[in-house]
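User: Run a structure prediction on this.
Assistant: Running it now.
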Amino acid sequence: MSAARWRRAMNARGTVAPPPRPAPAVSLRTVPSQPIDNARRWIDALREHIGPHHIVVLAGLLVLPFVASPFFTFQVAAQALVLGLIALSLTFLAGYGGMVSLAQMTVAGIAGYALAVLGTSSSAEISLGWPWWAAVPFALLIATIAATLIGWLSVRTEGIYTIMITLAIGVAFYYLVLQNYSLFNGFQGLRELKPPTVFGITWRDPLPFYFLALAWSLGGYLLVRWIVRTPFGIALQGIRDNPRRMRALGFHVVAHRVAAYALAGAIAAVGGILLAWYNALMSPGSVGTSWLINILVIAVLGGMRHPIGAFLGALVFVLLQTFAIDLIDRERFNLVIGGVFLAIVLFSPDGLLGLWAMLRSRLAPRPGLTSNQRRQP
């Protein structure tokens, strides 16, 4: 072995490999916890949008049927929830989309008639006799498709033209069910539309039906509150304010409006199913011109810019409809509704909630003023 090779071998033996570096300590703080972050985000959102007054109102609604009479629970509270759910669909369209539709009661009527034709009714020769768990989803689907078609026809117009198109569609459907006997049984309608008995509970009894209507109304309300804060809802409000600018920014205005009609139609369809079960019938009077206008009146009474306004307006409407006959004749009920409607619109364009906000702003003490200064005119 040469001297050079010997030195290289000795150098290789004497070389000590550096010790391995210890692995970095894993800290629990640096590990992303996606489920925990999502839970915290949901809790923060609930704290932001749900205040003590929401909890008080919900507690009152839950306790109401146990302290009120069955008549008030069914005839007033449950009916107000059903009509408020249908009016909520119009509030969503008009308040957040800028589209006033008079066909929301028509969509609800389509769902009710579809349920009567597909399910069971007094006219066995017309109804197909499907079970409720099959008839209800198909009725909702048919009404939602109808609402989408109505939106596709009317979104290309604005203002008074949209109102006239939807009114014409509503009137056309009214005469269709009035004059068609083979499918809709004419002016007599389809009767004995009773909700199913599930878990041994008869859902048309005052207490079960009230909680059924309350659950769906609460679901519709929370859905609208969530939708208007999503990117779709924000874009829809931008289209309401300035459709030309939103189109220039790359948004498909027609598609957003048609999707809004479809969503509002699904909400109105649920209300139509509940309305058919509440009345136990579907007749042309349920989708007549008067009810097309009544849904608009209910939405305006409560306030178009607030989802809860639909239910507040429905409660006022049902209370007047139920107890106004004790003061005036039944034939003059529309005069009372018209007077209340005009008074609220004149003093508060935003309905009862706008009137309440106005009163709160006037009664609230101004910062920096003493008690003596507040008393001065």
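The chain is about 70% helix and 0% strand.
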